[in-house]
TrEMBL record:
Belongs to the ComF/GntX family. It comes from the Bacteria. This is ComF family protein. Signal peptide: none annotated.
């Protein structure tokens, strides 16, 4: 028989018990949790998405991009890539973190080791980047760069879609699947003029069946936020933006996890 049963809820013993528990929770809690990145047991971690707790050391390793040096791609350092003046069909890109060796390990763990629950961590990081770099942007929809059918089969899930979904949900924005990989569409189905137009994006095509809702009330074009894991040369984001804009009258803003 427990103390509660013996003395009844609300008795002095019960109140004492609760106060003692509170005392211990305050000074010795919360309970230890395992850091999803390094596996260390910790209780001083940082709570991220879906109650994943990063240990203090792993959190300190995150090379956040707080002030981008390049207005185009959101890079944190001098950017010779964008200075060459290659025309881009997206407005700009912003990224959560620098693609440091540590971040490469994190992404590999998420993508190749199939650690699917890490989507919440990456989505949480995207949300921080969104609030930091795109405050005030009236976003109509969140889209993502789709994984190819083969990779999807290999990994079992679309890692970019999952992190985008987590981010969109936590930011209260609608997630829409706007793009397909041209290779996956097959030549037969890319027939109509409209669909051919949508393939101006090179490797990507707009989905012919999607109607893009408009949440904005202003006269400016609606903004679509396009999520990808890593911005390397910008060509993927550019091709996707071209495919989207060939079909819908929107402006495309990139939001990548790393740059
Ligand atoms: Zn850790
Ligand atoms: Zn740049």
């Amino acid at each position: 028989m427990t103390n509660r049963e013996l003395y009844g809820i609300g008795s002095r013993t019960d109140i004492l018990h609760r106060n003692v528990s509170k005392f211990f929770a305050r000074w010795f809690g919360p309970a230890h949790v395992d850091c999803p990145m390094c596996g260390r047991r910790c209780r001083d971690g940082v709570r991220t998405g879906a109650d994943l707790v990063l240990c203090g050391r792993c959190y300190a390793d995150i090379p956040w991009i707080e002030r981008p040096q390049c207005e185009t791609c959101g890079r944190s350092a001098h950017c010779p890539d964008c200075r060459r003046g290659i025309p881009r069909r997206f407005v700009c890109n912003r990224a959560a973190v620098r693609y440091s060796p540590e971040m490469k390990r994190w992404l590999a763990r998420y993508k190749f080791r199939g650690d699917e629950r890490l989507a919440a961590l990456f989505g949480w990081m995207l949300k921080i980047a969104f609030e930091r770099h795109y405050a005030g942007l009236d976003v109509s929809a969140v889209a993502f760069v789709p994984v190819g059918a083969e990779r999807l089969l290999e990994r079992g899930f679309d890692q970019t879609e999952r992190m985008a979904a987590w981010f969109a949900r936590s930011a209260g924005l609608p997630l829409v699947s706007l793009l397909v990989r041209v290779r996956d569409v097959g030549k037969q189905s890319v027939r109509t003029r409209r669909e051919r137009l949508a393939v101006v994006g090179g490797r990507f095509a707009a989905r012919p069946d999607v109607v893009l809702g408009d949440r904005t009330t202003s006269k400016t074009r609606p903004a679509v936020l396009l999520v990808d894991d890593v911005y390397t040369t910008g060509s993927t984001l550019d091709e996707c933006a071209a495919a989207i804009r060939a079909r819908w009258a929107v402006d495309v803003y990139g939001l990548t996890w790393a740059r």
